[in-house]
Structure formats: structure tokens, C-alpha cells
Amino acid sequence: MIDALSPEMRELIARILLIILTVLLLWGARRIFFHLLLLPMENLLERRNFPAVDAIHAVVATMSRYLIFALGVTIIAQIAGVSAMRNIYVERLTGTFIILAIFVSAYQAIEVLAVSSTHLFRLTGLHIEDKLLPYIRTGLKLIVISLTIVLIVQEWGFNVAGLVAGLGLGGLAFSLAAQDTIGNLFGFSTIVGDRPFTVGDFIQTSDVSGIVEHVGLRSTRVRQDGFGVITVPNGTLANSPILRLHRRRVDLLIGVTYNTTDAQIETVVEKLREMLRNRDHVEKHSIDVYFVGFGASSLDIMVRCFITLRDWQAFMRERETINLEVMRIVRGNGLSFAFPSRSLYIE
């Protein structure tokens, strides 16, 4: 039956069978190819004590899939006897698959390897805060996407440099129109990178003072007492001197009467220190309680400490509680608060 076929038909059938066999062999060899790529990567990650070695499997699977496609296209084109003119497109298609193998895998690797600052430190030795990682991942992904597009376009014979030059004038007009937005984005990166404040801090600048409620890409929202929420562009905020009050001070000067004994003052001073040390929201190393001097109408005891509560109302409640405790301690030990007085002697 085969002998009855023309030589051209027999050649066509042989090519089709070889193509089918090639596809089957490549499909069967994909696991071998996968493990050949995976083994050195696993060894590298294990040497650096990377905690999630299994997570790299998806990245290697993507790379091996595209490389198999590239190899398959090349072999099938040779079997099919593609003409020299059409072979150019085969080479471009093969190059496209190789580019995709590298950059799609890199895109996935960014998500897998930069999961946390701990992972990134074990791979690169760089200390980066967790809150910066989403922005770093986004920036790296944009770079990968841009390079992928540029290389594929260049692979298919387009003049990338000429395209960029042609867009130069439009890009200049766009950059001028978007300079405020770009300034705000750079301001956001400064706020996130330098951390002059965080959400919940009380800040004060020349234009605004209040509690930071939200830090966005374009602006930051600050709640002012009695004035609602103010939205400040990040570019303006990043260029302003910022006073950050991450803790608040309690400063009291207690005056007791002159008939107070030295033993009573020592007792009250020690009990005030003990009371502050037992407060959860008082910084222990900031506690200062001393008998500081002799006033015109009183013996003066200084009480100073810092409260770690950043919310204004919570701070005022804590301060009120401390003031009440001070009154109880002073009066509970038989002392009286002094008030300005003047003695008049008549002869």
C-alpha cells in the first residue's frame, strides 16, 4: 500500500510521523528537563537556608515549559523543511519563547523569593523592611515587563530606538503635565523609605499638625483636633520639616505646704515613682520624680514621664488617671497642697 503512494506523499507522511514522535518525546522528556533545571536552583537555595525551597518549583516549571516550546519549534521546523524565508519567522518565534522562558520565570520568582524581608536577606544579604517589599516587588515586575516587551519587539525586527525617539516629544509633554503626580510618588517613596512617621503618629509641620490616619501613593491624611481630616500631598509633606511625637510628656510640679516633714516628702516621692513604674503606658526609663526646691509658697516636687499612647484621647485619659493617683498619694500620706499665700505682720 505504501509502495502505491507517490514519493512526495511518502515523504509527507514520514515528516508527519517524525513531528508526532518529536512532540511525544519532548512531552515525555519534560520531567527530565524540569529536574535538570531544578537541581542547581534547589542547591543554591538550600545553601542560603531559604525556608521555602518547594516554592521555586512553579518558577522552574514555567521556564522548562517555554524552553521545551522553543526546542520543539526549532526541531519541528527542521523536520518540516521550512524554507529559508520562513525560517526567519521560526527563529524569531524560538527567540520569543526563550525570552518568555527567562522573563516570565523572573516575574514569578519575584513573587516567590521576595515574600518577606527574611527571605530576601537570606538570598541577597540586604536588610529591607517588610512594608517596603510590596513596592519593591511592583517596581521589579514593571522592569521585567518592560524588558520583556522591548526584547520581543526587537526580536521581531522593529526599531525600538526609533520608536522611543518618536515618542520623545509626547513623553516630554506628559512628564510636564504629570510632574506633580511624579513628585507625590517620590514623596511617598521618601516617607516609606525614611520613615519620618508611621500611621498613628502625631506629627507637626509648618502647615498641619495631627494624627496620621493614612499614607497613600499621592497624599497623606492627617486628622486635626477640632478641624477634621486634612489631605496633604506627599511631595509637600516630604519636603517639610516634620516633628514626630511618638510619645507624649506628662510634666507636673506639685507644691506641698511648708509644714511637711522630710520623711513625708521621701515617702511621697518613692510612692509616686512606684505608681508610675506600675503604669503600662509609661516609659519606665523616662520616669523622673524628685524634690526639686523651695518655692515662694511651697515645697516643690517634680513629676515627669513619657506616655507611649499616640492617640490624643487615650493619652488624656492616661494623664487624668495619673493626676488622680498623684492626688491620692499626696493626701493619703497626710500632705496638703500649697497655694500662693502671703503673711502680713502688723506692729
Short description:
58% of the residues lie in helices and 14% in strands. It is α+β, with helices and mostly antiparallel strands.
Q: Give the averaged pLDDT, no decimals.
A: 76
**What order do the SSEs take from the amino end to the carboxyl end, as H and E?**
HHHHHHHHEEEEHEEHEEH
Shape: elongated
Structural class: alpha+beta
In total, how many domains does the architecture comprise?
A: 3
* Largest sheet: spatial strand order: 4-3-2-1-5
What is the alpha-carbon Rg in Å?
37 Å
Largest sheet: 5 strands, antiparallel
- End-to-end separation: 150 Å
Helices, by number, come to 11
Structural account:
The model has no long low-confidence stretch (mean pLDDT 76). The chain has eleven helices and eight strands. The longest helix is centred in the N-terminal third of the chain and has 41 residues, at 7-47. The protein is of the alpha+beta class and 347 residues long. It folds into three domains: 7-166, no CATH class; 195-245, SH3 type barrels (Roll); 248-332, Alpha-Beta Plaits (2-Layer Sandwich). The protein has a five-stranded antiparallel sheet. Helix 2 packs antiparallel against helix 3, helix 3 packs antiparallel against helix 5 and helix 10 runs antiparallel to helix 11. The relative contact order is 0.06. The radius of gyration is 37 Å and the shape is elongated. The chain is 58% helix and 14% strand. It starts with 6 loop residues before the first helix and ends in a 15-residue tail after the last helix. The chain has helices spanning 7-47, 57-80, 84-113, 117-124, 133-155, 160-166, 168-177, 179-194, 234-238, 262-277, 312-332; strands at 202-204, 209-215, 219-224, 228-233, 243-245, 248-256, 288-294, 299-307.
